[in-house]
Amino acid sequence: MRRFSDRLKVAACALLAVCALAALLVMPGVGARPLATAPALFGPRLVLPLLSKEGAVVRRISTTLDLRSNAVQAPGDRIRVNINVQNLGNVEVNGITLRLPFDNTRLTFFTHSVDAPRGDQFVGVPSNTRVELLVGRIPVGQTAQVSVWFNVAQRVRSGDRVGLRAVSVFDSLQQQSNEVSFFVVDPGNNGFCGPFRGVNGQMSVNPYRSGVGTLVAFSSDCFLPTERVVTWLNTPTGGVSLPQTATANNNGRVVFQLNTANFAPSDLYGFVAEGTTSGIQVLGPFILTPSGQTQAATLLPRAPAGVQASAFAEQATGSATITGLISGDAGTALRDVLVELRDADNALVSITSSDDTGSYLIGDLADGTYTLYALPGYADDPATTVYGAEQRTVIVGGGVSATANLQLARGGVISGRVSGAGGQPVAGVPVFVRNSGSRPLATAVSAADGSYAAAGLASGSYQIEFDPSLSSLLATTTYLSATVNAVVVNAPATTQADVALLQPADQRIISGRVTSADTGQPLRNVTILLSGALTREFGDVTRTDANGDYQFTELAPRPYQVQALTSFSYGSVGVPYLNQNYASPVDMRNPGVQSGIDFSLAPGAQASGRVSEIGSGLGIENVLVLITRTSDEALVGLVRTDAGGSFLTAGLVPGSYTVTFDGSGSGWAGFEEATRPLEIVGTAEVSGVNAELQRLSKAAAYLPLAGN
Predict the structure, then answer these.
(1) Can you give the CATH number for the domain in which 372 is found?
(2) Is the CB of residue 574 less than 8 Å from the CB of residue 607?
(3) Are residues 152 and 90 both part of a single domain?
């Protein structure tokens, strides 16, 4: 049998690798550490089951969460939350609503996983503050599981504890699950200012080198301008005064150096700096290994002497609950109000939302003093967002439950217009309204005309942050963030606050949209390849998003060729349209944004099939399927089979083709090559392009490598 051209095969594999890279480049959170595979459960699993009786029929469920993630996360990490619903009754249950409220200043929804054959449905993410799902049929004694993935937001503050609870609604009854939580640390040890279990912030800790006698730099921006700062060292045996002192600069910043050459190895030291005017204390934790190396410690295994317990300790739990009703004018129940509970150190203890009756429930609480926040600005119901935020101090003692009803007053509104280059409106810009303590109280997103409105604000002064980097619109992410300070609100009046966003002066960006020529609808997952217009060397690759948009940034100063590729894919997912080259090179020798590099793709045919092993009939993964024109043997399609042996290649024009199935790289021994003809007529999909391959022996599989 004539084997396929090795040179063409190598080129095809290289191109397939490029297209595979495209899939990775557009995944949210690229660059983040991978999700841990070992499950870890945080928080008690004991919950009161929901119970509904009708005569001898008992409908009873139990809802629990588990967090398939580490107890410590960094900004940009991805976490997976499993929601488990167990049927404890004596009949099958169906149609359970699950709500998972989350703080969208700390988490962003990524994706979900449900069992469609069971009848599960993904309802949506209203206002990006909760995930809603519907669980279908659950037989007696069985457990249904759905999963939700979040990205830890880049803006989240190191030291924060992020907690999640699910609410299940079944037969008009409501149940709250156990809580799962994690702490946020900064892997770069950049420090932070804010409550930290008895101190006012964490210092940046940066060893200069890794050998014995390491010089370590400690820095912080938490102090008052020009105040004197003194230091001491907390060791495992006690505190030691240090001679280092400094005067904070006009930004409240100090920097110290410490030589650890004569320090005894220990698992934890703490460099502490205190402002003599403000009394502010910040802590720089570090460890000294037995080999004498100094390392920053962002996760404190235990507290150094003289400092309270770590901010990363488990949150204390108990049996008490706080319940209440959130209402508005004339006692009207307010639904979907985000409810936060924080402890005396301002650490987040729990987060939930009010139901359709305005009720909320927070459980598993230890005795103590808490602050309860009702934040209607995050709701998706316009009737709720017109109200202002409210807070209440709640004391829980002796394991006794407490009641805290909050009646909210109508608030003021901040509205305005977001504009960009040439005064044009900028759509899709996330807007955060913060109080004097930098706490986000309301959010908004600019509309197509650039307008935004944040309602439900109490009278006072606010800071407004516009962050285009968080936008779902690629064209918007090219703008720099901006902040407008001291915006005064006199509730219930409306205050105007416009902003003009800037773009970096030296950036080079190519962007565009891919649509269908026959319907005009945007096309998702089209590979966009960027190469040098003169040299044709690879430049970059990406895929279009749900809006059909794509974007290339950080480009070198040169002209580029842009191509939309549909016929190079993986597995059984394809786009039934033809490849297209952009009509002319895109010159990026000068800085600027070249938008409108659009493609309108004509429909093309698809070919699909399955590759299996002779004898067993099992699908073969990773078989290289190459589509060549019969007339000139030009490669026009390329795909690898998925785990089940299936493939689909798109973008084929009418004509005669040869399909080559190369299984030499599949499995331990590989498979024989096979070919078959393919005729394309019109734009319809041609299915059943199947092949059965014979497994090679190990020796035969490696023979082609001899002599290379």
Answers:
(1) 2.60.40.10
(2) no
(3) yes
Q: Are strands 359-365 and 266-275 parallel, antiparallel or unpaired?
A: unpaired
**Residue 43 lies inside a defined structural domain of this protein:** no
Same domain, 564 and 696: yes
- For 387-455, the three-class secondary structure string (H helix, E strand, C coil) is ECCEEEEEEECCCCCEECCEECCECEEEEEEEECHHHCECCCCEEEEECCCCCEEEEEECCCCCEEEEE
311 pLDDT band (50/70/90 cuts)?
very low
Least confident among 222-231, 527-536, 636-645, 697-706: 697-706
Please, which residues have CB within 8 angstroms of residue 354's CB and are 6 or more apart in sequence? Answer: 325, 326, 333, 334, 335, 336, 337, 339, 360, 374
- With a threshold of 0.90, does the pTM exceed it? no
Q: What is the pLDDT of residues 148-190, one digit of tens each?
A: 888 887 666 545 667 888 888 877 677 778 777 766 654 444 4
Q: Are 83 and 177 in contact (CB under 8 A)?
A: yes
> Do residue 494 and residue 511 come from a single domain?
no
Q: Which of 156, 184, 212 is the last residue of a domain?
A: 184
DSSP per position, 319-386: EEEEEEEEE-GGG-B--S-EEEEE-TT--EEEEEE--TTSEEEEEEEPSEEEEEEEEGGG-S-HHHHT
Q: State how beta strands 430-434 and 440-445 pair.
A: antiparallel
Q: Is residue 41 part of a domain?
A: no
Total domain count, the chain: 5
Closest by CA position to 469, among listed 553, 411, 564:
553
